[in-house]
Every structure is written in C-alpha cells, then in structure tokens.
TrEMBL record:
UniProt xrefs under Pfam families: ADH_N (PF08240), Glu_dehyd_C (PF16912)
InterPro entries per the UniProt record, alphabetical: ADH-like_N, ADH_Zn_CS, Glu_dehyd_C, GroES-like_sf, NAD(P)-bd_dom_sf, Zn_alcohol_dh
Residue ranges occupied by any Alcohol dehydrogenase-like N-terminal domain in the UniProt entry: 26-141
Keyword Coiled coil included in the entry's annotation: no
Alphabetically ordered keywords of this record: Metal-binding, Oxidoreductase, Zinc
Cofactors, names only: Zn(2+)
Domain Glucose dehydrogenase C-terminal: 148-359
Record-level Gene Ontology MF annotations: oxidoreductase activity; zinc ion binding
Name the UniProt record assigns to this protein: Glucose dehydrogenase
Length: 365
C-alpha cells in the first residue's frame, strides 16, 4: 500500500510502498484512511524539531489528524462495525508504573515524557491507505461528518482547554458566567477554538497578524467573530476597542511575544491558554517583573495544553455537529484544499488558506 513517510537520518519525505497492516489482536480494527490533516507539527518534524521512527525502523509514517472507514474488526470488538466512520486518538501511554496520568487513562498529562504518538513520536501515523488500531483508541463519527471529521483532532485542543478553564474558574467563590474571549491567530486551531468558545457562551474576538481582507478574517467574521489585525491595532488600542479586558485568551499562534503582550488585555481572575509551540527562531524578550506582577496582582492564570483525552475527542465530534447546525457550510469552508498524498511536502510548505488536507478518498468505496 502507499504511505507518506519521512526517512531517517535524511529526513526525506516520500510516498513509500509498505506492507498493508493486518489485525494481530481480537480488539483491533482495520481502517481505510479517508483524509489526513496537515499542521505545524508536521512542519516541525520535517525541520528536525520533532519526530522519531518506531524502534528498529528507519522511517516514520506521518499524519496524526485523521478520519477513516472501518473495513475489518477483531472478534472481540464491540460498538464498531464495517463501514463505520472513525477518528483515532494520537497519544499512547508510557509504560511506567510511576506515571499516574497514564495509569489512569490520561496520557495527555503524562509525567515521564516516554509516551508514543502516532505520526509524531515512535509510532507510525495515519497517512497511509490503511492502518490498524485498537478499538479503544477509535471514536465513531456520524456519517454526516464525513466531510469535516478530519478537523476533530485540532478541535480537541480547544475542548481540553475549555475543560481546564472550567476547573480553574471553579476556584472562585462564585459561579463564573462566560464573558469575553480573545483568540490569538486565525489558523484552523484558532478558528475551531473561536467556534468552541462561542458555543460555550463567550463573546469572541479574533486578533491576528494579517490585515483584512483575507480568507481567515472572512471565515471568522462569517460566524460573527470580529477580526482585528495586530499590524493595525496595538494591544493597548485593542483593549479600548473591546470596551475593556477579556476573561479568556486562547493563544493559537506560537508567537510568544504576542501572547505575553496580550496579558494587558486579560481581566483580573482571567485565564490565558497556550496552545502553540513558539517558533524556534523567534527571539523573546520578557519584562519578567511586569509579567509576574500581572499574574500575582490580578490572580491571573496561564497554562499550556497539548494532546487530548478520550472525552475531548468525543466532545469535539459532538461540537462539530453543533457547529454545522449553527453555521451551515462554515465548518466546511475551513478546509481550503484537498491534495493527493504525493503533495504532502508541498502542503506542509504551503502558505495561504486555512486548512490543507491529504485525501485518500479515491480509494474509498
């Protein structure tokens, strides 16, 4: 079968002919890949910042954002059948007994760092015609989501973030109502985050670099999210424009300076969620005393979030259905273009648009 893989140590990306996987356990499921999303993590793998092949192998099959169709199920599999649409989770737990997170089913909070991630770290990904996965790591999706379910994994970032915000806000001695939220960035993680925040009841504004008009600004504003360019409006001016501060900031840029500058817009008791990994070449100068003062004197909280849990994937699939009902056609417009597997590198390096996807659908039923 065809698979998109990066070889080591050259880090050359090619479409390889590899053996088609088979079931080796009664709880496994064989899946025909339909679509695989491409993101900044894939770019970091190609640049050498991330990525490791499975032990004893010289290549890593890429792809961690995926939707596929079940073609075979093990004899002990329940709840899935041939023809079902499924989305796989990415991270697998570490083997250490000392890791309470992994032993309690939350490898997204792994404390050892010795986990594996499909398509990223030590385990083959999903950018192949077929893959095999244990049923415990698969989520069944409604067939109506076939055209957008590839967005599930990036949406789980927001689902986990909002879940953590709820825990943090529960520390306050009164019930916190959704207020204002600021989304930093306008890529797919940011757009989906804005939708999730609106679903949760927040009044959302997007703050990103490029001036209007542009495709990302149009997508945000089409669902009622005002778009402001950081090239045209400073953080200080933004606060005035918003009529005050915000309660939640959802960072989805990987631009550290913008994220820390945005603390000036965060209200007392507010929460700043980091989701982006800063660019390796980006210089960062921090006014440490000012940042600490903002956090301490305003009871503000900053936290980072990566990967997601079983529940976050389920929540993301439920929210995709809600988004499509609330904003018909708007989730679909986040997918800028679909490409054949041979264009994986081109897609990783592509500029413009919102979300680019590798499709295997010509092989589907």
């Amino acid at each position: 079968m065809k698979a998109v893989a990066i070889t080591f140590p050259s880090r050359e990306v090619r479409v390889l002919d590899v053996s088609e996987p088979r079931l080796h356990s009664p709880t496994e499921v064989k899946v025909r890949t339909l679509e695989v999303g491409v993101c900044g993590t894939d770019q970091d793998i190609l640049k050498g910042h991330h990525g490791a092949a499975p032990k004893g192998e010289d290549h890593l099959i890429l792809g961690h954002e995926c939707v596929g169709e079940v073609v075979e199920v093990g004899v002990h599999v329940q709840g899935l059948k041939v023809g079902d649409l499924v989305v796989p989770r990415v991270r697998r737990p570490c083997p250490h007994t000392r890791c309470p997170a992994c032993r309690h089913g939350h490898p997204d909070f792994c404390v050892t760092g010795d986990y594996t991630e499909r398509g990223i770290q030590g385990a083959h990904g999903f950018c192949a015609e077929f893959f095999v996965e244990d049923a415990a790591y698969l989520h069944r999706a409604d067939d109506a989501l076939r055209g957008v379910a590839v967005l599930t994994e990036p949406l789980t970032i927001a689902e986990k973030g909002l879940r953590e915000v709820a825990h943090i806000q529960s520390r306050l001695p009164w019930k916190v109502q959704p207020g204002k939220a600021l989304v930093l960035g306008a890529g797919p993680v940011a757009q989906l985050g804005a939708m999730a925040l609106m679903r949760a009841g927040y009044e959302v504004t997007a703050y990103s670099r490029s001036p209007k008009p542009n495709e990302k600004a149009a997508a945000a504003e089409s669902i009622g999210v005002p778009y402001v360019s950081s090239k045209e409006v400073t953080v200080e001016a933004l606060k005035k424009q918003l009529g005050g501060g915000v309660d939640v900031i959802y960072e989805a840029t990987g631009a550290s300076k913008v994220a820390f500058d945005s603390l000036n817009v965060l209200e007392e008791n507010g929460v700043l969620i980091f989701t982006g990994v800063p660019g390796r070449e980006e210089p960062l100068e921090l006014q440490g005393a000012e940042v600490l003062g903002q956090l301490v004197l305003g009871n503000r909280v900053m936290f980072g979030t990566v990967n997601a849990s079983d529940g976050d994937f389920s929540a993301a699939l439920e929210d995709l259905a809600r988004f499509r009902a609330r904003w018909p056609g708007k989730v679909e417009q986040l997918i800028t273009q679909r490409h054949p597997p041979s264009e994986f590198v081109k897609v990783v390096e592509a500029k413009g648009g919102i979300k680019h996807v590798i499709t295997f659908q010509e092989h589907a039923r």
